[in-house]
Amino acid sequence: MLTDCVFEDERWEEAGLEDLAETAARATLEHLELGTAGYEIVVLACDDARIKELNADFREKDKATNVLSWPSEERAPDEPGETPFYPDIPDPDGPPEELGDIAISYDTCLREAEEGGIPFANHVTHLMVHAVLHLLGHDHIDDADATLMEGIETQVLGKMGIPDPYN
What we know:
Blueprint: E1 3-7, H1 11-15, H2 17-31, E2 39-46, H3 48-59, E3 67-71, E4 97-105, H4 106-116, H5 120-135, H6 143-159
Parallel strand pairs: 1-2, 2-4
Antiparallel strand pairs: 3-4
Helix pairs in contact: 2-5, 2-6, 4-5, 5-6
């Protein structure tokens, strides 16, 4: 498995996060032609209270959010809008290349999906694609970076039959 889910909130197990995370991560890496063998991503399946704590500790933002990500190494490009420095494709027989960790909150994801009239699984899949791209060095602070990242998200989701979340 590419993703390893750690369940702090059992609602995620019932929602099928393990399959959603694995499918989203694989689709993202395959789209970027990085392959899927030899990588590892840890996903913390939590609630708003836990993600609020993490957001405060790591981003100094005292509020819940939908998803957070911690890349194993800095891969950001030198200039806005450029492709990040993706990792080399690992040896599938060697130790796994740790891409990083992701935390995702059930409460915020459910609320956002309901408010947006989006199927919950589609919203979670989008957020997982988004988080994997963060692990690979993508960001959306600068407009050029946001355009690149959102374009990739839309392409990956489109291949999965999920409508463009930005339209």
